[in-house]
Structures are given as structure tokens and as C-alpha cells.
Amino acid sequence: xxxxxLFQPLEFHHGKAMNNRLMLAPLTNQQSHxxxxxxxxxxxxxxxxxxxxxxLVMTAAAHVQANGQGFPGQxxxxxxxxxxxxxxxxxDLRQKGALSAVQLHHAGYRAPANLVNDIVSxxxxxxxxxxxxxLDEVYQxxxxxxxxxxRAEQAGFDGVEVHGAHGYIxxxxxxxxxxxxxxxxxxxxxxxxxxxxxxxxxxRQSCDPDFQLGVRLSPERxxxxxxxxxxxxxxxxxxxxxxxxxMSLWDVRKRxxxxxxxxxxxxxxxxxxxxxxxxxxxxxxxxxxxxxARWLLDQGCDFALLxxxxxxxxxxxxxxxxxxxxxxPALPVTSGHLTAQGVSPKFQSYLSGWPNFIQx
Length: 360
Ligand SMILES: Cc1cc2nc3c(=O)[nH]c(=O)nc-3n(C[C@H](O)[C@H](O)[C@H](O)COP(=O)(O)O)c2cc1C
What we know:
CATH topology of the largest domain: TIM Barrel
CATH architecture of the largest domain: Alpha-Beta Barrel
CATH superfamily of the largest domain: Aldolase class I
Radius of gyration: 19 Å
Distance between the termini: 39 Å
Oligomer: single chain
Bound molecules: flavin mononucleotide
Order of helices and strands: HEHEHEEEHEHHEHEHEHEHHHH
Number of strands: 10
Structural class: alpha/beta
């Protein structure tokens, strides 16, 4: 694999090709207004990444219902009031040459009590105070994910990624631990996956044929079961339900938490070995230099998602194109460095809660 391969366009089953293999990972940045409206700071942060060469720029997790808010300053896409600022963003990202996607999210039981009065989840949860959704509310949640995708399309985005990871509501539905429902959305693995699949199918049927659809999954923690997430990914790929699967691994070189001693496969390999037809596969987790990005493609992925490297360097792709050995500066970095990279004081205040990010 040469670095040139990272800069080969990637065709999707639907919509336009990504002009390289480097996608901006969804990154919560807490820069939106309290009502979920995109702010100028958030627009600037994303537009800088499009100008810096990311093939696809994904927004932060954007909540599809008001009570799905997971963070202060979170981007919203739950009402038409969000459309004008999202439309300006989609226009700007397109002009700067990147594909664009909105990550669709509902925090579920992970919504903070100081932000959300009515915390909901597939089943009641004493720790978070979440109550179980009624069946009608599950249907409404499905319809609101689909309505949010239509809104993203109306705003001019190339696609959406459905957030089915990290314990948020759709991955809570997938989880045998967190989902204890006894209706058609609980019980068997098939029933627990029903909501996610109905949302994916509903988006595909409601949006234009060239609208791109991705899904983010995480195979560990938050009550996820690796074998079930592998089986779900197999089924999503076999039915070519999405254009891409984004595996959130946090470290692309890690082994599964419960790996058998005689199984040397990395967590990533459980997904790269799945036949995937026209579906593209990407992964995120500690891709901080050209060598790791190339290695990821060598392992069988189609593209790499960059999170922390993209925060530290708005133009990591351009730097990599000029120098195959380029590596993002090591963390921690200074506040001045982040400011120069378009990371506003609000975003920096959020990052200061991440270990070893900003130098004191
Ligand atoms: C500040 C920050 C915000 C994040 N926000 C989101 C988010 O909104 N949605 C999501 O799916 N993942 C989110 N993640 C996870 C990243 O998308 C990515 O998967 C993770 O950071 C691992 O990639 P990295 O090692 O390149 O940072 C976030 C990570 C960070 C560091």
C-alpha cells in the first residue's frame, strides 16, 4: 500500500465519490446554541476541515428529538428551525470540495438530567432515572430519525450517518443488557436490531436514491456483545442496506476485550473479514499518522475516520498528501495551537475534560 492509495477516490453505492480515504469522524464540540442551532464557531470549525482536505466532513452527533440531547451546546436537527444554518454549512462544505454528512443521534439514558427532564431508554434504568419508551414512542422515535434525515437532505447534505454506537439510544436497543423489552423491539437479537434497521430502511426509502447512508456501530462496552454486532454487520452488508459502516473501535490496533487466547485477530479483523458487497467499511481509533492510515487500508478497510488528529490539525490530509510519513503533533497541545486550528474556547473547554489533551 502506498500513500497514493489513501488519495484514490472512493465510490459509494449511492451518491458522489469521496475524493480520498480520509473522513472526519463525528466530533461533539459543544459550540451550538442552547436551542441546537449551529453557531458560527461550529460552522468555522467544520469548514476549516473541508478546506484542509477531508474527503467527507461529518457533523457532531445531532439530536433528532429535543429530549435526545446528550451534551450542552449540542447540534440539533429535530426541527425546521435548524434548517437555515445547516443549509449554509452544507453549501460551504460542498464549495470547499468535501462530501458532507450529519450524524443522527439520540442520547437515550445517557442524556444528562440537568439538560433533559424526560430521560428515555428501551427499558427503565434506575441509575440514570430513564423510563422505558412506550411502543408508540418507539414508532415516533423511528419516524423522527427518518424526518431528521429528510431535513439533512433538504439542507443539502450528501448523506447522514445513524449513530448506533456508544450506549446511546439505538445501541441501547441493540444491547441484551440494556434492552429488556418484551414487545417486537426486545428479546431476540433480531427484535433488538429492529429499530435500527427500520430507521435505515425508512431513510433509504424516504430520501433520494443518491442520498448517502452510513451507520456507526461499536462492538464493545455499553452492553454490546461482539458476536451480535458482528452478526448485525454481516446482515447489514449482505442486504446492502447502507453505503458505509463506521466501526468505532477507539484503537484500531486493539484486541477484543474477551479475546480467546488462541485467537490472535484484532477487533478490527472481526469486521474486515465480513463479505460486504457494495458496502464500504471504515474504522476510527488512534489513527494519528500516515503509516497507521495506510495500515488500516492494508487490513481491508476502505477508509479511515480521524478524530483527535483532525482536532489537532485541520489540514492533516493535505499534510499527508505532501509527506507520506506525516504524523499529527503528539498530545497534549497548547491552547494557542488549538485556537489556530479553529477550535473555539467553548470546544477547548469541553476538550479540557479529556485526559492529556490540552497542556496546562
Ligand atoms: C472530543 C470528542 C468528541 C466526540 N464526539 C463524538 C460524536 O459526537 N459522535 C460519535 O459517534 N463519536 C464521537 N467521538 C468519538 C470519535 O468520533 C472517534 O471515534 C474517537 O475519538 C476515536 O478516534 P481518534 O482516536 O481518531 O480520536 C468523539 C471523540 C472526541 C475525542
